[in-house]
Amino acid sequence: MLQLHKGQRLEGKWQKNRYRVIHKLGQGALGAVYLVESEEDQKKYAMKVSEDNLSLNREYQLMVRFSKEGMVAEAIEIDDLELDKKRVHFIILEYIAGKNLKTYTENTGIDYLMALKLMRLLIKGTIVFGEKGYILGDLKPENIMIDENKKEIRFIDLGGVVNIGGGIKEFTPLYDQASWGIGERKATEAYLCFSLTMILVQLLIGQKLNPRNHNIQAVNKKIAGTKLSIAYRTFLNHGLKGKYTYLKDFANEVEGLYGHEKKVKQFEKMNCSQKWVDYIFIGSLSFFILTIFLILINQ
C-alpha cells in the first residue's frame, strides 16, 4: 500500500508545484488522503494519492464540475509523482477545516431534530448530483464534511459517483441496500433513499451495525427501543424496507416529519415552561399562606 511520511517533500512531475506532507487524513477505496502544505504559498491542502490514474482523473473532473455548486471541495490541480521509481497520481483539493459527519456526531452528539436538519442538507446536495445525471453511490458519514467556517455540508469523496442507472462498484456494506438483501446494487434514487435512511439511523442510535451480523428486522427492533415518535419510527422502517423509490417522495417525507417533530418539540418546551410557572405559583401561594398563618398565631 502506498504510504507518504510526515515531513516528506513532493514535487509534481508536470506542474512542478511542491508540497510538504503534514499527516494522513484518511484512506479511501482509490487511495490515501494527506494534509499537505504548499511550499509556494504556505497554504494547506488535501492531497489524494492513488495508483489508479483513470479513476482519479474521473474524480478530479467531477470535483471540478461540482465545486461550482458549492457542495464539494474545490479541485486545485492534478499531477503525477515519481516515488521509488514508480509513477503515482495525485489531486490537490481545498482543505476543509472541520470534522466529517461521523466524527462530528460522535464528539458533539445529536438529537432527533438535528438529525433531520442534517438530512435535509444531504438531500439538497444529492438532488444537485441527480439533476446532472449522477448518483452518490458510496454515500456515508465519513465522506461528508461539516465545514466549520462556512457552516455547511461538503462532499469530499466522489470516487463512488455513478451515472444514473449504472452499476455501483464502490460501496460500504452498511449503507448498501444489496448487502442487506433489500434491492439491487444499482445507481437509482431508491438505492440513494436507502443509504440516506441508514445514515439517519446511524446518527440516531449510534450503534455499530453490520449486514453480516444483523438483518433489517434487527435494525427495526433497535429503532423500536428508542424514544422516537411513532411517525419517526414509521418513516425509518419504510426507508429500510426500500419503500421510497423516488428522492422527491423521500424529501417530502423528511420535510413533513421535520415540521411535525419541530412542533412537538416546541409544545414540549412550552409545556415544560408552564410546569415551572405552576411550580413557582404553587410555591409562592404556599409561602403566602404560611406567612398569614404565622401572623395569625402570633397575634
Structural account:
There is one protein chain. With 299 residues, the chain is α+β, with helices and mostly antiparallel strands. The protein folds into two domains: 9-94, Phosphorylase Kinase, domain 1 (2-Layer Sandwich); 98-257, Transferase(Phosphotransferase), domain 1, CATH 1.10.510.10. 44% of the residues lie in helices and 21% in strands. The longest helix is centred in the last third of the chain and has 51 residues, at 247-297.
| Helical amount | 40-55%
Low-confidence stretches: none
Q: How large a portion of the residues is in β-strands, by DSSP E?
A: 15-25%
Biggest pleated-sheet summary: 6 strands, antiparallel
Q: What is the name of the CATH class of the largest domain?
A: Mainly Alpha
Number of helices: 7
Question: How would you classify the helix and strand content by structural class?
Answer: alpha+beta
CATH superfamily of the largest domain: Transferase(Phosphotransferase) domain 1
CATH architecture of the largest domain: Orthogonal Bundle
CATH topology of the largest domain: Transferase(Phosphotransferase), domain 1
Secondary structure: number of strands: 11
- Rg from Cα: 25 Å
Average pLDDT level: 89
Helix-strand pattern: EEEEHEEEHHEEEEHHHH
Apparent shape: globular
The order of strands across the largest sheet is 1-2-3-4-6-5
Distance between the termini: 93 Å
Number of domains: 2
